[in-house]
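Technical annex B. To support the medicinal chemistry partners, we prepared a structural model of the target in complex with zinc ion, based solely on the information shown next.
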Amino acid sequence: MTRGRDARRTGAGLPSVDGMRVLVTGGAGFIGTHVVDALLARGHEVVSYDAVLASAHSGPPRAARAGERLVVGDVRDPDAVAAALHGVDAVCHQAAMVGLGKDFADAPEYVGCNDLGTAVLLAAMARAGVRDLVLAGSMVVYGEGRYACASHGVVRPGPRAGADLAAGRFEPRCPSCGAELAPGLVGEDAPVDPRNVYATTKLAQEHLSAAWARATGGRAVSLRYHNVYGPGMPRDTPYAGVAALFRSALARGEAPRVFEDGGQRRDFVHVRDVAAAVATALEAVRGSGAGMSAASEGTFTAYNTGSGEPHTVGEMARALADAYGGPAPVVTGEYRLGDVRHVTADSARLRAAFGWKPEVGFADGMREFARAALR
Ligand SMILES: NC(=O)c1ccc[n+]([C@@H]2O[C@H](COP(=O)([O-])OP(=O)(O)OC[C@H]3O[C@@H](n4cnc5c(N)ncnc54)[C@H](O)[C@@H]3O)[C@@H](O)[C@H]2O)c1
Ligand SMILES: [Zn+2]
């Protein structure tokens, strides 16, 4: 079999390749599992590689799919990673510790899994001659999203002060005049400003990937996912996303507890849309090796991956509670210092580069998620 060499154009005019073998790190996780399914459905072979961390999994990993080899291993383990890379054409790096964590004592574990792990993986790819990488990036690299002041134009508000949050002043203010700001869509060229340990590690993963691409002539793409939700999301843990916290509360017969005043704006993107974006990007990047132009040698490119439809956390809680038929959400005024107020994506670059577009709308996605199983 010729793997990945015979690039062709699909009907949509997108670069594509036949029969790649893809290593999916974090393949037993929430998004990784959907990526595996998307790749298998498009006729690729998959080696999944996952440490099945206790912070993410309460039991054994899911069963391997037909056409998938599921390896339990840690990305920090160079020998195991080298073995898993055997015969692999492209890598999709999803493995990471996610969420805000319990407290700062988690920092070494985050940096170990996410940054040391990425360095070990990239070094093994350099040795094995694997040149195509799609990284699971995150919108957390932006910190607070994009804001404009009526008098000062686009501004960058600093971290919100604990005293403001405690007094219920949740909106960031203009650093020059203190006026309330209007939130907008954040583009990839916005300055990065990670606000917590996890965000810092996600940014370092991108910088490592860019350095690897330059040093090896590799092609690296980071898809900066916004708030991903859908079937198979982990249950509520200190590492879980807000949609999973609300869904778990409803399953216990409790009202979703909405922090701040519920007005935080996010972009909730369905996990199947994210998996489709990843598969499309992998094919395009791989296709570039056979003369396509989606990514050039030695480059790193970041793409926002969002639905393009901003919603508040309060709206999401209501949509989910309605669809579930559970108690109405309670707005608590609680807050977490590492949280940002608004961050919503402009995903135009991803749509233009790969012809991707989200298929699952907010209302339909939340209705399905209300009924779906959590992990
Ligand atoms: N869920 C979201 O909304 C979201 C948003 C932005 C980015 N992301 C990124 O997407 C990726 C997948 O996240 P997810 O939501 O599916 O989380 P998840 O916890 O369900 O999946 C992550 C997987 O990585 C594995 N893993 C962690 N450390 C590892 C290590 N050292 N070696 C091998 N495997 C390891 C875990 O066991 C887990 O199965 C992560 O890189 C995350 O940063 C997620
Ligand atoms: Zn101002």
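Notes passed to the chemistry partners:
The radius of gyration is 20 Å.
The first strand starts at residue 8 and ends at 9.
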